[in-house]
Amino acid sequence: MPGQARPEKAIERAGRLLSYFGMMTLDQITGATCRAYVAARAGRGRSNKGKGGGARRDLQDLAAAINHHAKEGLHRGLVRVALPERGKARQRWLTRDEFAKLLWACYRAREMQDGRETTKRPLRHLCRFLLLGAYTGSRPGAVLNASWERGPGLSWIDVDRGVFYRHGEGERETDKRQPTVRLAPGLLAHLRRWKRLDEGRGFVITYAGQPVASVKTALTRACRLAAIEGGVTAYTLRHTAASWLVSKGLPTRKVADFLGTSEPMIRDHYGHLAPDYQDEAARAIGRK
């Protein structure tokens, strides 16, 4: 699917939509059928938790497809897709102690066979993902797509200049900005060593020599080994970067520039972590 940062996910969403709406005509796409889809999506699996957000994303794709159909002149009239309410933004982020525990668990973990530890290290690749994600605040897709060499559709790391070109070369711009970001000195040292080990070729994050499409399973296992709870996902690393920067007192404008997002978003979601948060108001309220 052209322009999709994660085409495999788009294919999954398309499959779900076709299974439910595939035999319907446009006049059957109503608020009632959309709400029924949300209910059906929530009813699958062991828990309803988190399903509303997934259904909303699916229906956004449906709306985009219908709008494209209209722009091509293939139907007349307005067809509205009713979206469920946006879920509350996740605020989970890792403390530095949690991050260290998680990193150490990934580094030490060994594969078990017949109840015995082997020499295989199945989570070592996750160490690279954790460090690059937390210390650049990049979206998971850009981290997994990172290459040692520039190329079409690839984000890439220039260890000579010390920068991470997060936007895939030749990819179209979207609302999710991914500006070039400067690398922290400590992270850059790791990256230079990893590039030497990889002989300067291929993707930065690999498993058994192959690029990694998702870290969901590995991250779940790592959190279990590190005894870290609270719904940690790949995107938690972006929240972690924002939280660490704001808590260090960096101006929200600079944090937003580093992450490639808006200053109001940083202020609204992470402003309370700033060391001087509401100091002036707290002092003023006590004055006569």
3D architecture notes:
- The chain has 288 residues and is of the alpha+beta class.
- It folds into two domains: 7-71, no CATH class; 96-272, hpI Integrase, Chain A (Orthogonal Bundle).
- 48% of the residues lie in helices and 7% in strands.
- The protein is built from twelve helices and eight strands.
- The chain has helices spanning 7-21, 31-43, 51-71, 96-108, 124-136, 140-144, 185-197, 216-225, 236-247, 252-259, 263-270, 279-285, and strands at residues 112-113, 116-117, 146-147, 155-158, 163-165, 181-182, 206-207, 210-211.
- The strands form three sheets. A four-stranded mixed β-sheet has the order 3-4-5-6.
- Helix 1 (7-21) packs across helix 3 (51-71), helix 5 (124-136) packs across helix 9 and helix 10 (252-259) packs across helix 11.
- The model is unreliable at 45-51 (pLDDT under 50).
